[in-house]
Design a protein that fits this description.
Two copies of one chain form a homodimer. The first copy, chain A, has about 250 residues and is mostly helical. The first copy, chain A, has a domain of about 160 residues: Tetracycline Repressor, domain 2 (Orthogonal Bundle), CATH 1.10.357. In chain A, about 70% of the residues lie in helices and about 0% in strands. The first copy, chain A, has twelve helices and no strands. In chain A, helix 5 runs antiparallel to helix 7, helix 5 runs parallel beside helix 8 and helix 5 runs antiparallel to helix 10. Chains A and B meet through helix 6, helix 7, helix 8, helix 9 and helix 10 of A and helix 6, helix 7, helix 8, helix 9 and helix 10 of B. Chain A binds a DNA duplex (30 and 30 nucleotides) through helix 2 and helix 3.
Amino acid sequence: MTKSPAPLSKAFDQTVVKSQVTNEKLVLRRREQIVAAAVELFSDQGYYKTTIQDIARKAGVSVGLVYQYAQTKEDVLLLSLMSVLESYQREIPRAVHADADPLEALWCSLSTYCHVIDRRRNAGVLAYRSTKSLPRAQREIIMQLEVETNEFLAERLRSCIAAGLFRKVNVDLVTYQLVLYAHTWALKHWRLSKLTTIDSYIEQGFDFFVHAMATPAGLVHYGQFLSRVGNKAKAAKRPKPRKQTAAAS
Amino acid sequence: MTKSPAPLSKAFDQTVVKSQVTNEKLVLRRREQIVAAAVELFSDQGYYKTTIQDIARKAGVSVGLVYQYAQTKEDVLLLSLMSVLESYQREIPRAVHADADPLEALWCSLSTYCHVIDRRRNAGVLAYRSTKSLPRAQREIIMQLEVETNEFLAERLRSCIAAGLFRKVNVDLVTYQLVLYAHTWALKHWRLSKLTTIDSYIEQGFDFFVHAMATPAGLVHYGQFLSRVGNKAKAAKRPKPRKQTAAAS
DNA sequence: CCTCGAAATGAATGAGCATTCATTCAATAT
DNA sequence: ATATTGAATGAATGCTCATTCATTTCGAGG
């Protein structure tokens, strides 16, 4: 067996989708090109309204080439969904010092998750709209990815409990509430954006979660945290100055 | 203007979809028949994989007849989504004494919402999967319905605040969290069902929400509430013995 | 037991689109 | 130069439906 180029996890192994082309480097580059177009189109128009012809045109390649790098349209969807979930799994841990103050790490995780979602809201909704369009086996890959992504958040929660800041809640369940809180920003953006901003949404949400779980000691700690970030608020709310793909604005 | 037969709200006005058939009674009956089939098929297979031929067959009518009661396939989807959302708006208030103890009314609302979702989980997911398949105007009808449905929950929250049981939270935002908590049971059932049961899910969720918002007085009240329902737990968790469509089991 | 309009039928139409494959292109080896 | 082979192309194929409409059935009134 050839060793894959350090996939983030077994579930991210792109080789579940077969390619006619043998040059591995080329496969990665072409697929990136195709998937970038596909994610945008799927996100905007949905899976079924998007044709392979559309994707090929937007990617600047021929229809036939798409079929050199994926066997079916469903494969393209799978690669697209994997790409979106992978970006979550990559970006969130990068913004968080896992060994920092547990409460701050949790804040930073939620904040980053929400901002990542906000940056590509339609992509965030894509999984909800389209996962059922995949055959069972492929759907399970996506579910596995989601579980893995959640694990990082779960760890941040466990740290808060271990530090005596939170009472012993059901971590798996609360993790899903945190995840859904982030996703909700995309799912219900048409309404929520009329009620608040993303930064206020994050602040109110975090406040809510802390109150739901904090011990007395945790509440004190939270108060200190608030006065700390109160000063450098702007900085804390934007944990990363967002890597630019190309030129600066 | 003919007076419609007491629609729950302007948004529920079925006349947004035009019918060739003039007999109003007949339109209602036939549409019920068609929509019942459509909801099931859309829920199981999704909008695009479901054909009008499928719907007609399952409803026991001809293809042409479907087009007598709706002008396009999108119309059928709109009617289907309306039917699902209407069932929420109908069933939740029915199970709740709005003038009872505010905390109990909130519990009952959340519990009923979750149970209603649980009873038809695929239908619950339908809106998330398919709303974007509608043209803007129709999509807005669905959004309006959702906002209206949420309003009942929002009122229960306001009562708790007015009674001094909850602190002054952002009602609109928390309402969405409650709604999404119920929806999440359907959206992530593949995972959550491995972690807990619906009844435990409701209990844990309610406990979480109460801790997030309760005043000291509210917490005392919640303790009393817990010991009260602790006795008649089974009854409280199933607020309605579920109307049977036909024979008893 | 006719008549006539509303309801219901389902075969036929035609547009849209996933997938294929004969052909061309380009790079490397001979 | 020329042969070989992996990549890339995009027109052609064939199937799947949404929608239509010519025809049939139904039922109330005469």
